[in-house]
Specification:
502 residues; globular; 2 domains; five-stranded mixed beta sheet; alpha/beta
Length: 502
């Protein structure tokens, strides 16, 4: 045990090793899973905002805060592949989360080994392996959640102005990214559980903490006020109401959806975090009865937002609970280190460690190597892999259209005016003046006259994504692309072929 303690006294080599492992895992076949609906939207927004400064706040037109898209705008300037550029932002966000995980765990438990193990658990967690590799807001949400908790703990323990200022900036950046980051502000007073009541001048220090908390809050609102520069700022609250019940509406049915939401969310949670890691986190209260206040704080930062979302959630996806899962990892690392200390037999030690990390490694490996058969959450398998929101066929169709456009102008009509189509095509075909893209929704039964007229002028194509039957139009199937392992869902590319004389 002393050898283990001495070996990890210097965390730098271990963090360097974990950093290499992190980027190998996150960048491995980063674009093998095709672009899906939300990614297409966010990357397309970033392309538009990056090319036209007047559209920097374009995400607000759909009620989404812009910080993630701003980072993607920067990434697009240095990375040619738009999907890689978008997902790379999440990769960097995840790396910052891993660094924050070490700092958070060490600050709470004062044990470098626990910090290293928490980082390792983060690195191999199926939840983070899944979302650190997608061009979505949620990896960045988790980053700010970890760092905001860490800074909140520093503030209550050291009560310093510089910490309050950093905390205010991080809180502001978090809510500039997604509304759920407001929870970090609401839960900051819970860190008072770590306040040292035995120290002298406790009333003075409480008053000072209160003042610094107010400063951090005001600073966060100043940062958030940047959004008021856009005339579309009001749409944020409207969009939030689609996913979260407003209090007035919630009061009509306060507990009607709570049990169902809680059951579904917990199923997603266990799928991605795995039972062994979750049980290890719970055992942290049993294996050694020290640092109990720190454990209660971490548990609260998981349970409180989890139950709040189950209570008020209207439309839920597994990615919404990613940031809530983060406080569990320091608890699991605490249990892992304590068990390693107390168990004498090396065989049993290795067995316990394998039991804790084995399921995470197995599922993460499946996500990386064969996601179509990976046992990810049911709420995700349809969106990302097997149903119409997934982007199987988009890369191939884009290449085909590029090649066709080399011979002259062409026109493309897509089933859909917002989302995967036409945005995914626009993401890949941006700047190609020979390709004219039009969206249609809903699909009319009668062959549209504008498509007929276009087909007379130039080669015209139609892409069906949700409709799985051939439209009663004069079109010829060129190719079809199955959605993951779903043999009933395809993206189909047609060419308009008008009859002679038409």
């Amino acid at each position: 045990m002393n050898q283990f303690r001495r070996a990890i006294t210097n965390p730098f080599p271990w963090m360097l090793l974990l950093s290499v492992a992190y980027f190998v895992i996150r960048l491995f076949h980063l674009t093998s899973l095709p672009i899906f609906t939300d990614e297409a939207i966010y990357i397309r927004w970033s392309q538009i905002g990056g090319n036209d400064a007047s559209w920097r706040f374009i995400s607000l037109t759909d009620g989404k805060q812009p910080l993630f898209t701003w980072f993607v705008m920067i990434s697009l300037r240095v990375i040619r592949d738009p999907l890689f550029a978008g997902r790379f932002v999440s990769v960097i966000a995840g790396y910052l989360s891993m660094i924050g995980m070490y700092l958070l765990t060490y600050e709470l438990f004062r044990d470098k080994r626990m910090g290293i193990i928490a980082c390792f658990l983060y690195c191999i967690s199926p939840f983070t392996v899944m979302y650190d590799r997608l061009a979505l807001y949620d990896a960045l949400v988790a980053t700010f959640s970890i760092w905001n908790l860490y800074l909140a703990i520093l503030l209550v323990r050291y009560i310093r102005l510089d910490v309050a200022l950093f905390s205010g900036l991080f809180l502001g950046a978090g809510i500039l990214n997604k509304t759920s980051a407001f929870l970090s502000i609401y839960f900051m007073p819970t860190t008072l559980i770590l306040f040292d009541w035995k120290k002298y001048k406790r009333l003075y220090r409480i008053a000072l903490w209160t003042g610094l908390f107010i400063i951090a809050f005001i600073l966060s609102q100043i940062v958030y006020a940047v959004l008021r520069l856009s005339p579309f700022f009001y749409i944020v609250s409207q969009k939030d109401a689609l996913f979260i019940y407003p209090v007035r509406e919630w009061l009509k049915h306060p507990l009607e959806f709570f049990r169902g939401n809680l059951r579904g969310m917990f199923d997603w949670y266990i799928t991605y975090m795995t039972w062994p890691v979750f049980i290890a986190a719970l055992l942290s209260f049993v294996v050694k009865k020290t640092k109990n206040l720190e454990k209660i704080l971490l548990t609260g930062w998981w349970i409180l937002p989890f139950c709040a979302l189950a209570l008020f959630g209207r439309i839920l996806y597994p990615r919404f609970i990613l940031f809530m899962a983060m406080p569990i990892l320091p608890l699991a690392s605490y249990t892992t280190v304590i068990l390693w200390e107390r168990i004498v037999s090396k065989t049993i030690k290795i067995f316990i460690i394998a039991l804790i990390i084995g399921p995470s490694i197995i599922l993460s490996r499946a996500i990386l190597s064969d996601i179509t058969h990976a046992s990810i959450a049911k709420g995700d398998i349809g969106q990302y892999v097997n149903d119409w929101p997934s982007g199987w066929g988009v890369p191939e169709v884009s290449v085909f259209l590029k090649n066709q456009s080399k011979s002259g102008p062409i026109a493309v009509y897509t089933e859909g005016t917002f989302g995967l189509l036409p945005y995914a095509l626009e993401v890949y075909l941006i700047g190609n003046k020979n390709i004219e893209i039009h969206g249609i929704w809903p699909l009319p039964q009668k062959f549209p006259d504008d498509i007929r007229m276009m087909a007379v002028k130039k080669p015209t194509f139609f892409i069906a994504n949700q409709t799985q039957t051939k439209p009663d139009w004069p079109v010829k199937l060129i190719s079809s692309y199955q959605k993951g392992s779903n043999i009933q869902s395809f993206m189909r590319l047609y060419q308009v072929v008008l009859p002679e004389g038409k």
